[in-house]
Specification:
The complex is a heterotrimer of chains A (102), B (167) and C (748). By secondary structure, chain B is mostly helical. Chain B has six helices and no strands. With 748 residues, chain C is mainly α. Chain C is built from 29 helices and two strands. The interface between A and B is large, with 71 and 86 residues.
């Protein structure tokens, strides 16, 4: 059938679920971050799809830009934290980072 | 099956397969690189949705910035001697079940709902100009706040990642 | 040139002193010279602007100009209807003139303080407080509603407290500040009650709205008595603020503050706020309220004038003189001579501020001379230590003389005009209503005023100084202090207010200030304006003759006693020693209040303390020992507990018998045997229960059992739920997702 709004939404839903799976399942902190990026991307697809199919209102695209900005900021800070954790615990395995204080 | 649909399905499959590899692979480097392909796929989807500015922004920022950052992270936090770096998973089964349930429910909802769609697409050549206008008028405040957030993130990241001075 | 211009200018005048306060309080220490130039220049700008406003108002706009805005909107309140509160400001002749008065006095006091308060320990804070005071005073002057007036009222009280207690290291100064605030507060309670009566009747605070409501027939509780009560209660605020009898006791103590503060607050502006309030609310005063006001004013004038003739501290004489003159103003308003009363307020502000600043100049010079001599014990403010200062401080002497002429009511001064008008008013009132005591007191006080003021001048400035050495070191004060003196002296001259030295009615002031129409119902209205004006016309000349003769007599006696030494003051004081002591000790008012009010309150506290210690604590302790008995019950060791347990048994038995009896009564009507059995069971059961309780079983088995049981079950379930807490974020995310799915399906 003709590709319509539903197709994009289903695509974003599947991408979202994959992202959640990545966040929940992985042991390496960096892989968790990758999962988060997938989730954000799926949300972006959703926004832009709705923007396109509601008479080309560009509000959805504006919000998508903001999401990208925030994803960048968040990735930077998260990676800084991960690096710091690596310096302290010598590992990035999320299960082993279980001491609140040294 | 128009050309449009074929291209859509192509990009969708690229995205989903790469996402799958990101999430299911045992090898970190494989995951990182397939994330690259995921981003490319998503950029393609954006182009299909008439969001040209966003697509290029996605490529620049996600691929050029975030992915490189993640790769750096991977390299710096694992003792890289050989290419394959094994990594494990945790609580796979319950996660799989729940994720399947989530995906199923969401897809079901999206399929069933009667979306109010505006069929005709007005001729918009590039969105850059309109987006810029919107940023400077309607969305001026979030724009400024976003720049502040970036500044804060920049400073924060530098501060956090600095090596502590040895006392 | 529109009305909005005047409102805007008035707003600027209002807010500039606030700006001065904020700058000086936060940054004062860091500015050059601690910021005195800031405060002074701000006030002079305000002064210029207020002149502009007054001129424009008088020449261009007939009607009052006001600005109102909606402050609170409660919408549709059940049982009341639509409720909104409107606040705002008004510029009419009354407030424009008052604004000029406040700004003149404040500006010159600022200038004077630059010289007087040099090297003071808290210089910038002093100027800041002057700024907040001026702001609060302008709030009172410019407001058009009771609410903001009350706010300004309290703010001036606060500023007065801060300024009187400026040298708070001195215990007497801080005590005086507290006394001023507390006594003012007592007056404010009355004012608050009055405002509340008006509010609950009219549901508005605005003056105009209340006046028009009264005019259309609505009065509080539908009775004129309540309207009179409201008027008198609002006047209570004026009693406190303007130091009328019986709340006049704070003003003399307030002389502990710096002399420029006394000039600003306790001579010209704050104490005039009470008079201003009466002038503002004049239309709603009934005849009875006005009569009360007139009498209180007259009594105050009399009491303080008699005290003033016996005082030896230069500031105390001026303080009592202020109270006396305030009594005059209040009396003038009370008898219906509205314009005269307000006119006296204006002229009095000028010459009283001048008098205080002049005394400040004298005290400053005395301090310097004593400092030179190394003398730190002699009181620089006691007039018995002065004398012959006129030769060395010419400007101070001549200006002081001008003020004294004004206050004594000598022709060609402004004081003469205003005092004369008031006295004519009281005479007219006496003739119309038969209350002749008021004019008698008025003229008597006029004579006393002339007497004690000239006594002050003669002893301080004429004659010879006691200490030949000290007089050498006395110099005239610096220009920052003499310029204000000269300005006030010029303003005490008659020409500013009327071109006829003997009648003020021709002047601009009288044309600007007309007595407002009274809005109260016919039956309680005071004398109509026309009738009063008639009587005034007739009493003008007799009043003038009487006042001139009485003032001349006072001045003559003063000169005879103190200059020409024809009458021996000390001998008279000896002969009437009891009277002299009575006057010297201020009619023993402070002692009276101390014994009655303070002592009374302390007695009440003693009674309450007995009650709290014995009865309330007795109940508390009794309950505690009762509970202890229930818990610990029958033990062999402790004697008290044995007793309490046995008491328990007896009590338990009694209670159970009583309960059984009543229950049995109820059952008795139904069936005899069943009820008897039930009664027995109940009795037995209750007795056993109380025995068991008395034996301490209650606590041990029931209470502890309950606690242990709860703990056991908590532990049991805790073990089970522990498994879910893994401490890993990812697990929690799974749970979140699970929850989301559940919600999805519940709300689908």
């Amino acid at each position: 059938m003709q590709v319509g709004l539903t197709h994009y939404l289903i695509l974003s839903a599947i991408l979202f679920s994959l992202g959640i799976y990545g966040v929940v399942t992985r042991k390496n902190a960096i892989l968790v971050l990758m999962g988060i990026e997938l989730i954000l991307n799926s949300a972006n697809i959703n926004f832009i799809a709705f923007s396109r199919y509601s008479g080309m209102q560009l509000d959805g695209q504006v919000i998508a830009v903001f999401v990208i900005i925030l994803a960048a900021a968040e990735a930077a800070v998260a990676l800084a934290i991960v690096l710091n954790i690596y310096q302290r615990f010598k590992t990035v395995n999320v299960d082993e980072i279980n001491k609140l204080k040294e | 099956m128009s050309l449009f649909d074929i291209i859509f399905y192509f990009f969708a499959i690229v995205t989903l397969v790469s996402a799958g590899i990101v999430v299911f692979s045992r090898n970190i480097i494989y995951s990182a690189f397939s994330l690259l392909f995921t981003f490319f796929g998503v950029a393609g989807i954006y182009i299909l949705l008439n969001a040209d500015f966003i697509a290029v922004a996605q490529l620049l920022i996600y691929v050029g910035g975030i992915l490189v950052l993640l790769l750096f992270g991977v390299m710096l936090t694992n003792k890289v001697i050989s290419v394959d770096i094994k990594t494990g998973t945790v609580q796979t089964l319950p996660a799989l079940l729940l994720v399947a349930m989530t995906a199923g429910s969401l897809c079901g909802i999206f399929y069933v709902t009667d979306w109010k769609i505006v069929q005709s697409v007005p001729e918009v050549s590039t969105t850059t100009y309109s987006l810029g206008e919107m940023f400077m008028t309607t969305y001026l405040l979030p724009f400024e706040v976003a720049s502040v957030i970036l500044l804060v993130a920049l400073i924060g990241a530098v501060m956090i990642a600095r090596r502590d001075k040895q006392e | 040139m529109s009305p909005e211009l005047l409102i805007r200018l008035s707003l600027i005048i209002l807010l500039l002193p606030l700006f001065s306060f904020l700058s000086l309080i936060f940054f004062g220490k860091r500015l050059s010279r601690q910021g005195d130039w800031l405060g002074t220049s701000v006030l002079f700008i305000c002064l210029t602007l207020s002149f502009v406003v007054l001129y424009l108002k008088l020449t261009m706009f007939e009607e009052p100009i006001s600005l109102t805005f909606k402050w609170l909107d409660f919408g549709n309140v059940p049982l009341i209807g639509f409720l909104q509160i409107y606040l705002g400001m008004v510029v009419d002749n009354l407030s424009a003139i008052m604004m000029v008065v406040v700004c003149i006095v404040s500006a010159f006091v600022h200038l004077f303080s630059i010289g007087y308060m040099k090297d003071d320990v808290r210089y910038s804070r002093y100027f800041a407080y002057l700024g907040i005071f001026t702001f609060s005073m302008l709030v009172i002057v410019l407001t058009n509603n009771f609410f903001t007036m009350y706010v300004g009222w309290e703010l001036v009280g606060l500023s007065s407290y801060l300024l009187i207690g400026h040298w708070y290291e001195k215990k007497s100064a801080s005590n005086a500040a507290i006394k001023a605030f507390v006594v003012n507060r007592i007056g404010d309670i009355g004012m608050f009650t009055g405002i509340m009566i008006l509010y609950f009747t009219f549901r508005t605070f605005s003056f105009n709205a209340i006046f028009s409501a009264i005019q259309s027939g609505r009065i509080p509780m539908g009775s004129e008595a309540w309207l009179t009560a409201a008027g008198i209660l609002i006047f209570c605020g004026a009693i406190g603020k303007s130091a009328q009898f019986p709340l006049h006791v704070w003003l003399p103590d307030a002389m502990e503050g710096p002399t420029p503060v006394s000039a600003l607050i306790h001579a010209a502006t704050m104490v005039a706020a009470g008079v201003y309030l009466v002038a503002r609310t004049f239309p709603m005063m009934t005849a009875d309220a006005l009569l009360v006001i007139a009498y209180i004013g007259a009594v105050t004038a009399f009491i303080s004038a008699t005290i003033a003739i016996a005082q030896n501290d230069i500031k105390k004489v001026l303080a009592y003189s202020t109270i006396s003159q305030l009594g005059y103003m209040v009396m003038g308003l009370g008898v219906g001579a509205f314009t005269a009363g307000f006119f006296h307020l204006t002229t009095h502000a000028m010459f009283k501020a001048g008098l205080f600043l002049g005394s400040g100049s004298v005290i400053y010079a005395m301090h310097h001379a004593l400092h030179h001599q190394g003398d730190h014990h002699t009181d620089a403010q006691d007039i018995r230590n002065m004398g012959g200062l006129g030769k060395k401080m010419k400007i101070t002497f001549f200006t002081f003389l001008m003020y004294t002429l004004a206050i004594s009511g000598v022709p060609f001064t402004s004081g003469f005009l205003s005092k004369d008008e008031i006295l004519a008013g009281t005479l007219a009132f006496g003739g119309l209503t038969g209350h002749y005591l008021i004019p008698i007191i008025g003229f008597l006080v006029a004579g006393l005023t002339a007497f004690y003021m000239f006594r002050l001048v003669i002893i301080t400035f004429l004659g010879e100084h006691i200490d030949r050495n000290r007089i050498e070191h006395i110099h005239e004060s610096p220009k920052t202090m003499t310029i204000p003196l000269i300005c006030f002296a010029v303003l005490s001259f008659f020409a500013f207010f009327s071109f006829n030295p003997f009648g003020a009615s021709a002047g601009w002031f009288y044309h600007a200030m007309e007595r407002p129409m009274s809005v109260v119902p016919e039956s309680v209205r005071a004398t109509e304006i026309e009738i009063f004006e008639e009587a005034l016309h007739h009493s003008h000349v007799p009043a003038m003759i009487l006042s001139l003769s009485v003032a001349g007599l006072g001045i003559l006696i003063a000169f005879a006693t103190y200059k020409w030494k024809k009458i021996n003051a000390d001998a008279i004081a000896e002969k009437f020693n009891w009277l002299y002591k009575f006057l010297l000790n201020k009619w023993y008012f402070d002692e009276l209040y101390g014994a009655v009010v303070v002592g009374g309150t302390l007695a009440v506290t003693r009674v309450l303390r007995w009650f709290d210690n014995n009865i309330i604590d007795g109940v508390v302790n009794g309950t505690a020992s009762w509970t202890r008995a229930v818990v610990f019950g029958y033990t062999d060791h402790v004697k008290e507990q044995k007793t309490s347990a046995s008491i328990f048994l007896i009590l338990g038995g009694l209670v159970s018998v009583m309960v059984a009896f009543f229950v049995g009564q109820w059952f008795w009507a139904q069936q005899a045997i069943v009820s008897a059995i039930i009664m027995a069971l109940l009795t037995g059961g209750l007795t056993f229960f109380f025995f068991w309780a008395g034996a301490g079983g209650f606590d041990l088995h029931v209470v502890d059992g309950l606690v242990n049981g709860v703990a056991y079950f908590s532990g049991f379930f805790g073990m089970i739920f522990r498994k879910f807490q893994t401490g890993k974020v990812q697990t929690y995310i799974i749970f979140v997702l699970l929850g989301v799915m559940v919600l999805f399906y519940v709300f689908r």
